[in-house]
Amino acid sequence: MRSFPLFVPGWRCALEKLTLKDIRGPKLYVQFRDDLRKKVIELKRPRRIDVGDRVTLVFENRATLIFQVEEMLRAESITEPARIQDELDVYNELLPDAGQLSATLFLGITDESIIKQELHKFMGLDEHVYLVIGGERVRATFEAGRQDDERISAVQYIRFALTPAQVAAFVGSAPLSLVIDHPHYQREQVLGEDTRKSLAADLG
Q1: Which of 148, 151, 155, 73 is nearest to 109 (CA)?
Q2: Beta-bridge mates of residue 135
Q3: Could you give the CA distance from residue 50 to residue 187 in angstroms, rounded to a whole number?
Q4: What's the CA gap between 203 and 161, in Å, rounded?
Q5: How far apart are CA 27 and CA 80, in angstroms?
């Protein structure tokens, strides 16, 4: 099987939006799927961060989102360019802009008998997630519409907007961590150098 040539470092600008040219579509994608999945798993390894036992963040970039689009098109048998573009428009909203990091946040509650009550404990989470750079907190911005006064989604989309000084500290040697200080969930996870290196490429 031929190697999928997508994930060569520097292949495309990390901030460049996805277009139809980036997508093979179900018929061609199947030829590369196994190879691509292996590369995405390896790529995500330093970008997947568990913050305690209930919260996981996966930092997204062009490569992770192209994979998600291809998987969606394959699952739904979508081949029409207009419908593919619709999917691209959705996933492009998850790409970080210059000086930003973008992540999907998962609330890991799998027991169906308690999921509603456990999710309810995370109400207001959008005010309590931080990236800490050298002791300086950057609060996450959550996508609107995934929480209201009565419910919260188990999947959230968040961004961290960094100042130029914070970007310099991030890609330099400042200590990095993710902190959640919600009243019902207080956790901190230090980020390693592999994570710093991988995410630094997203900052433009």
Answers
A1: 155
A2: none
A3: 10
A4: 10
A5: 12
Phi–psi pair at 190, nearest 5 degrees: -70, 140
Contact 200, 162 (CB under 8 A): no
**What tokens does 173 get?**
């040697």
Distance (Å, whole) CA 75 – CA 66: 14
Check whether 10 has a pLDDT greater than 50: no
Sheet arrangement for strand 141-142: 48-51, 55-59, 100-107, 155-161, 141-142
pLDDT category of residue 11 using cuts at 50, 70 and 90: very low
Using CB atoms within 10 Å of the CB of residue 43, give its burial: 0 to 12 exposed, 13 to 18 middle, 19+ buried: middle
Using DSSP bridges, classify how beta strands 141-142 and 155-161 pair: parallel, antiparallel or unpaired. antiparallel
Neighbours of 200 (CB within 10 A): 15
Tens-place pLDDT, residues 155-202: 999 999 999 999 999 999 999 999 999 999 999 999 999 999 999 999
Q: Which residues pair with 55 in a beta bridge?
A: 51, 107
Q: Which residues contact 140 (CB under 8 A, 6 or more apart)?
A: 103, 105, 126, 129, 130, 131, 158, 159, 160
DSSP state of 118: H
Q: Residue-wise over 57-95: b if at least 16 C-beta within 10 A, else e? A: bebbbbbbbbbbbbbebbeeebeeeeebeebbeebbebb
The backbone torsions φ and ψ at residue 106, rounded to the nearest 5 degrees and listed phi first, read -110, 130
pTM: 0.88
In the block, tokens 């989102």 appear at 65
